[in-house]
Amino acid sequence: MSTDEELAKDLGLLSAITIGIGTMIGAGIFVLPGTAVARAGPLAAATFVIGGVTALFTALSASELGTAMPKSGGAYFYVNRALGPLFGSISGWANWLGLAFASAFYMYGFGEYVNQLVGAPALALGPVTVSAAQTIGLIGAALFIAINYVGAKETGGLQIAIVLTLLGILGLFTIIGLFNADLESLRPIAPEGTTSEVLPVTAIVFVSYLGFVQITSVAEEIKDPGRNLPLAVIGSVVIVTVVYALFLVVLLAAVPNELVANNETAVVDAAELLFGQYSVFGIGLGRLGWGLLLLGGLLATASSANASILSSSRINFAMGREKILSPSVNDIHERFGTPFKSILITGALIIGFLLFGNLKLLSTAGSVLHLIVYGLLNIALIVMREAEPAEYDPDFEVPLYPFVPIIGTVSSFALIAYIEPFVILLSAALVVFAGIWYLLYARQRVESAGVFVNWILERSEEMPDAAVTAADSVRPDAARAATGTDGGDFRVMVPLANPRTETELITLAGAIAKQRDGTVHAVHIVQVPDQTPLERGAEQTERIDAESQKLLEQAREDAETFGAAVETHTVLSHRSFEEIFDAARTFEADQVVMGWGPTTHGRAESRIDELTHDLPCDFLVLKDRGFDPEHILLPTAGGPDSVLGADVVRLLREEFDSRVTLLHAVSEDESPEEGERFLEEWAIENGLADAELLIDDRDVETAIEDAATDATLLVIGATETGLLSRLVRGSLVLDVLNDVECSVLLAERARTRTLRERLLGLEKDE
Fold it and tell me: Are 236 and 21 in contact (CB under 8 A)?
């Protein structure tokens, strides 16, 4: 069941930035300095900078994709949309398990900091010895899983407060450290044997930068996303990189490296040492510094762990929506309204990783899995740029394209090579598992093949045979069926809402699909009230499923009477009319057949969409007064919409043996002879040479109204008059609709229009 969600734009720039910073400033900076300094010495600061620069390239790509496709799921959604569900499965599983690894790592760090307060002993559980940090981390993980399970809210104000508190604590430590820093103590900057450790350590500490892509998951909720989303994503990476670099340099210059190396709570011990050199009223401030950094560590690790658990449920939701996972994973708890199954599965993974992983394994595994996702994300940007799908219209574009995404791809994958072989093998096994999962489970259920696969197949004659074969072999079964024995390439989508009009729409769509050897996609769009989250709409699935099943089953029977292949879908949305366009893109429709509703106004799209978007495919809009194609009237002045109308008329004539009349109302600067010559030539060009030709020298509306008295169906092109003109002067199509007694079929061809054409139009079609 595919869903879409429209959210209030109530997140400002500061709130958006704190989402990224709050997720990134976690156990990475409070726990990993000990490991980094032990292996790289003073170059540990450089490893955090290299990690930040690597993240920055991906942040630029994520910013463009986020402004073009503001959808829940973030990086997973972009990869799935661009590269297809095979890579979507890989990125989804990698992102999900990567967040679980990272959450376990954060909770381990949380345990280390709490243990500074309580001094808990290790526990022996049979053959397994559980350290104090693991025990406390397990308790903390259970707590955060429970919080997410019952749905306790985390307000934007609280997140801002946590982030500002963390930055304040780190800033105070840095200032105190600067007064005690001795840069000479950093020499030699690269002790013997440390240079070769820089990139391996960078790969380990990269877990410190997980989180900036999460901002894109809430792109729909950000005010002025074209400006604020890139600033938030890129700004959060830059701020965190600067904070990390300054913090590490000051830490290493102000305290002995021996105090930091292999010390998982080094910053707390360093703070006690530095603050202890100062006193107030004769009282040393060492314990104050110790307490502040301990508080910072607790806030950072707890906040990051909680954010990661929350993020993982979003990824699960997106994977369930695309049917890569079972949608049942997103079942909503009747009492708490939370995706409890998803939370419990993620929680079980976190607890398992905490029990059987160690600090280094957890951090490096989380890093590797996210580096895979980030590499694929950069490739996704390249695909979207090169394929140029109609719906791809970012407000922010990556500078220096294609160098930025290429560098982002290479640097992300290259860092993986510096991880220890065991973790690489573990990650490779996951990639293989995700691929097998897609081929054996998801391929039979997902519906969209992805931009890249379609781009290759559309150019099959130009592409190498191996590329075409590979693209075809990984397509979802639904997409393959559209070109196999169950139907041709041509897809006719029929959005259904009213059972009374279903038969007429399916009759029209079925006839077109049969003549084109295509497939009918019957889509029931169920509108959910704005006040109800789409996830909560799942609570009504039994009722919705029953209604949809009845409507769609009737549609299937009607379409199959024509011998046309048919597929059925149900979509939950806060919107109704607008969702049609998203569904057309999702199901890759070539043509949409829909009923004429109150928002239709002489074009297929709404007035807002008309100004901002182009149609995703050709549209046919039926005003039904009893569908009867016995005698079809087609007025024309030669525009592209009339050509589409002629295509449809030819198909209906083949299916129903219709009588066809072509009408041309001559203009003021055109003689009847010129009009007759035009109509004869136009009829031949459009395969309707045997149609009855009718020339009328009266105004267009009168000519159509009189000619339609003997017609059973009027097929007319969408008015080319622009939005401003129609708002002032009305629409020819609407006038004719009210004047004639027969059914009216509005035909509008998909094409790119300039802003001037959107506003003022090109008055070509009648």
Answer: yes
